[in-house]
Specification:
31% of the residues lie in helices and 17% in strands. It is of the alpha+beta class and 351 residues long.
């Protein structure tokens, strides 16, 4: 079995002279480090030869020439609000099976407003929101404060900063204008959810989809006075391998009734958006203690270093899955979904 590995690797900062400057410093935060790509490649080698397929402008040609039996997709894409859908769309065009969600699900989940519209239609709790597309729209937001603002189509904490919590109209206008200009896309304005936050890591398809042990956030570990949000600063500045924030509890120390409610909402969202194989879903309690879906990430972060706070591998370890076993389980789920049978591994693979 030959597996293609589709990825985007974070560029060396010294090679970015031609890139437009980013005032936020988060231009490539969604892309993966070489160590993560190598760790996934090592896990996939269990099944046979692995062909690296960097998701650059030459990806369609490279995939057409390689013709792997399956593509493990961890590529975030290059440009636009549909960028996460590009690799699976090209795979489908060339009739190459791949892991994870399809182009429609990836496009919908990256656009947070489209996600929330579907959730609301399905009666799955999510915070009230307004989509701001122009500066004039900021004066028409009718939601009560406090409000939280973020770019509509980013991930990995990109564009989510501690000062995105707006207590009044002046702050809303200031942060909204900054985000509109900096990220060149609409801005999501939503009711701030003051309760506890969780991440649900989901594996499986259909009735067999299941939540791994819940991850809860302990915002008391953030710097004093910091907004209780797991955004860019918490993910990439305050939390390092050398000085790790002890921000996660896994399994979450909550009553079984709370865990059950969070898992039910997460699985309902997973199915409503048509996710496949795996997905990480962020959930936060509102002021009434009702779990609300914040967003879905069908291309979850999978940093291999246990010292780094990467939620999906953390939940998998608590569930008894090593890093390699997690990656291999995703391959098996995709193979079973595509072919309707279990994946058989040749004995030579163990040599």
């Amino acid at each position: 079995m030959r597996i293609g590995l589709a990825y985007n690797e974070k560029p060396d900062p010294g090679t970015l002279a031609d890139e437009p400057p980013s005032r936020s410093g988060d231009a490539f935060v969604e892309w993966d480090e070489p160590t993560t790509i190598s760790a996934v490649e090592q896990a996939l080698s269990f099944f046979g030869p692995v062909i690296r397929l960097e998701a650059d402008p030459l990806f369609p040609q490279k995939l057409a020439l390689a013709r792997p039996d399956l593509v493990f997709n961890m590529a975030e894409g290059l440009h636009g609000l549909n960028r996460e859908a590009h690799v699976p769309a090209i795979c489908e065009y060339l009739n190459v099976p791949y892991t994870g969600s399809d182009p429609l699900a990836l496009a919908l989940t990256l656009h947070k407003a489209r996600t929330k519209e579907i959730l609301a239609h399905r009666a799955i709790p999510t915070a009230p929101f307004v989509l701001v597309e122009t500066a004039r729209d900021l004066d028409r937001v009718g939601l009560p404060f406090p409000l939280f603002v973020k770019p509509v189509g980013e991930g990995s904490g990109k564009g989510i900063f501690a000062n995105n919590l707006c207590e009044g109209p002046r702050a809303l206008r200031e942060r909204g204008l900054f985000l509109l200009e900096e990220y060149d896309q609409p801005v999501l304005v939503e009711t701030y959810l003051p309760g506890q936050e969780f991440t649900a890591a989901i594996l499986g398809n259909g009735a067999g989809a299941r939540c791994l042990p819940l991850v809860a956030f302990d915002f008391a570990t953030l710097p004093e006075g910091a907004t209780p949000v797991y955004g860019y600063e918490a993910k990439w500045i305050w939390d390092t391998a050398e000085h790790q924030l002890d921000i996660f509890q896994c399994p979450a120390r909550v009553p079984p009734s709370v865990a059950d409610a969070v898992e039910r909402v997460a699985l309902a969202a997973y199915r409503a958006l048509g996710c496949r194989d795996w997905c990480r879903i962020d959930i936060r309690m509102d002021r009434f203690g009702v779990p609300n879906v914040v967003e879905l990430n069908p291309l979850p972060g999978i940093i291999p270093d246990p010292r780094m706070n990467s939620c999906f591998p953390k939940a998998a370890r608590v569930a008894g899955l090593s890093y390699d076993e997690l990656i291999q389980e995703v391959v098996r789920l995709a193979w079973r979904r595509v072919h309707g049978r279990e994946l058989e591994v040749a004995r030579e693979a163990f040599a």
